[in-house]
Amino acid sequence: MVPLILVLLLILLLFGAGFAVKALWWIAVIVLVLWLVGFFARPAASGGRRSRWYRW
């Protein structure tokens, strides 16, 4: 009985980890797309100099 419970817990843990990693990949892709849009769509600075689109 105990080995069966351990196997089921291992399967549940691996499934949860796989789901979390997949969700983190999607979040990383969305953040990358937003960063690229902000990088290429930034307004031109006065004086012909390019400015940073982020504040930090």
What does this structure look like?
- Keywords: Membrane, Transmembrane, Transmembrane helix.
- The chain crosses the membrane at residues 26-45.
- Pfam families: DUF5670.
- This is Hydrophobic protein.
- With 56 residues, the protein is mainly alpha-helical.
- Helices cover 70% and strands 0% of the residues.
- It has one helix and no strands.
- The longest helix is centred in the middle third of the chain and has 39 residues, at 2-40.
- The model has no long low-confidence stretch (mean pLDDT 80).
Features:
single chain, 56 residues, mainly alpha
Please specify the SSE layout and strand pairing.
Elements: H1 2-40
Distance, first to last CA: 56 Å
Helix count, DSSP H or I runs of 4 or more residues:
1
User: Approximately how much beta-strand content do the residues carry?
Assistant: under 5%
Order of helices and strands: H
Could you tell me the number of beta strands? 0
- Largest beta-sheet characterization: none
Estimated radius of gyration: 22 Å
Task: Indicate the low-confidence ranges by residue numbers.
Answer: none
Helix proportion of residues, in percent?
55-70%
Secondary structure class reads mainly alpha
Mean pLDDT: 80
The rough form would be described as: rod-shaped
Question: Briefly, what is this?
Answer:
This protein has about 55 residues and is mostly helical.
